[in-house]
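Wed. Picked up where I left off yesterday with Polysaccharide chain length determinant N-terminal domain-containing protein. The coffee machine is broken again, so keeping this brief.
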Amino acid sequence: MNSATEFSSAEDDQTETAGLKIDLELLWSQVKGKIWLPFLVAILCGASTLLLTKYFIKDSWKANTIIIRHQKNMSSQAEIPYLYLQIDFNTIMQTILVRDHLLRVIERLELSLTPEDLYKNIIISRGNRSDIINITAIWHQPEMAVKMSDTVSAVFLESYSSVQNSAAQKVNTYFLNELSTSRKALIAAQQAESDFRQKHKLLSFDDQMASNYQKIQALEIKYIESQVATDEKRAKLKATISKLTTIPKEIPLETMVAGAALSRINGLRENLQLLKLKYTSQNPKVMAMEQKISTLQSNSDSTSVTGQVDTKVYGQNPLYLELELEMIHYEFDLYVSDQSLAGYRQGINNTKDSLQRLSALRQEHQRHQDKMIEYRHLVSTLEGRVTDSKLALESNISDFEIIENALPPKYPERSYRKLMAITAGIFGFTVSALILIASVLFDPRVKTRNDLDPKRLIGVLPDKDTVEEYHYYSAFQGLFSNLEQLRSESKNQSKLITLSSTHEHEGKSTIANALTDIYLRQGKRVLYIESVEAGDNVDEAVLNPLIYGKESQWQPLNVADSIDHAYFVYDQDIYLNYLDKASFDVTINTISQDYDVVIWELFPAQRHLQLYSVINNSPAAILLIAKSLFTRKDNLNRVSNYLSEKNIKPIGIILTQVPKDIYHA
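Structure written out below (tokens, as returned):
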């Protein structure tokens, strides 16, 4: 097919950009009608930016205060670190706008600002390699700019001494706190020493220890003397015990008449009662009397009064009793001596313990005294440090001075409103122009023949309302010639021509009517089949029953000489019934016998793919209608590829209603 050569024009200037083929003449033809949009956007952006900057960006005024730093000419700063603190110049500049200073400025000027907002309006700079500081304030009123600059400078000078003396102040505060703590500790140590002496009743350690040593000496002498007496008593006790072993314990005391024994016992008992009144039951006299009564009682019980006239009374030997009493006396004295020895030993040990306790108390008391001495020395040292730091605070004066206060500015600072408006206009123009160009370049719709497959393109029709009539009819004549060539390429010279599109209202009826007129002028008999909806109330010349084999006869509607009209109705049956290709081909051949050309205006492919495939798969010339600036490329290509996959040929594509500028581009 040579349709491409018939509809081709002179080669246009083209450029390749990032793999995208751009037709500059075509691009210009689409953009020139909308070129006013970027300019309008630029004007709107510039004007709106100018208005916004006038509203949001107020005129700013700048005032400057100059501060100088004098040299103290200190020869040696290392020797007097508390009296002088040298701060780096750049460090000082950083301290001017600290938050505390800004809060004081806001309070003095009664500004409704935050420290952050005020910080943005103050500029601190140093004179070129000099000891000059420039404090610049920028504000919307010139008078307030002057006040802000001078106030910031004044607050800095007022607070510089505190900044300079901050180290000395911290040292002074530290030493004062330590001095207070140390004094309290000294008082506590003195009180603890006094309480210690009172608790342990200490007057003089030396006197008390000397007294204890003398007491130990006296106790040791008494202990030795008591030990000698004890040894003597122990020897006497031993001799007495040895004598007792040689003397009988009992001897006959007297012979008594049996009748007189009872009266004798009673008399002894009375004597025993008298003795108990004078002595204890452990007294030897009481014990001897009790023994005597017991002996007489036992003898009187064992002797019969009638059998004997008298009785011998036995009792303890008085000598034995005397020695026994002497032994008891020696034992008691020995016991007393042993107790005395134990008491002396206990006294000696207690005195030694007292000496040890005094020694421990003396060490504890010495620790209290050492602590008091330590705190006294610390308090003395801290008092000296406090005096030094206080002297530093009073001696380290400021070395800054204002040499020139701020003057009211004559002119406001440059606001760059016009520059921002021009920049915004350029930006708006650039962005809108790029968007406009991109919308044209990446528009997915069909615009020119370059958007279609040149091998299948058989005609390009301009918009009839925008071009001269001869241009339109010339283009249509070329379309008709290419259509005839397309029909001649079919194997059996089919009489059927189908026209379809991807959407409704893309020009099928217009082209069908135009082709019908041409064939009628050639004297050919034409059948025009129109596809209509079920609701269009068409009840004659309907092909549906014939095509689906429900009827064998049909009667077309005669419109005029050599032309008949028929309808294909989109009703529910076409979706429920399957169209057989073989029977359809027979039906089309039967219909075509009475006509030279059958033109069928079809429905979009996606409406009924099976019906669409069967109709177009019959020996026919298939025409796809594409409307410029309306039909999407992907939809058209999808239908074209679908027909190709089904091996449906021949296929021709017609581009209609191309705008004048694009058509001539």
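Quick read: The chain has 21 helices and 16 strands.
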